[in-house]
Amino acid sequence: MEHAELKERLEAYALGALEAQEAEAVAIHLLSCAECQAELNTYRRVADALPSALAAGSPLRVHPSLKRKVLAGLQSPTRTRRRFRAALWPAAAVLALLMFAGSAAWGLHTQQQLSRDELLRAEQLTKLQTTLDRDDQLRVLELLDSNARVKRGLKPVDPASPTFQHSYGKLWTRGDGDDVIVMVNLLPQPPPGQHYELIVTSDGRKIDAGTLKVDQDGFAMLLFKADRKGPTYTRATVTLSVTPILDWQQGSN
Amino acid sequence: MDDEELVERVAAGDVRAFSDLYDRHAQRIYAWSAHVLGPAQAEDAIQEIFLRLWQHAGQFNRGRGTFASWFTAVVRHHLIHELRRKGAQRRLDAAYEIADVLAALPSREPQPDEAATERETSAALARALRLLPEGQRQILVLAYFAGMSQSQIAEQLALPLGTVKKRIRLGMRKLRAALEPEARSLIEPAGESIREDRS
Question: Whole-prediction pTM value?
Answer without folding.
Answer: 0.61
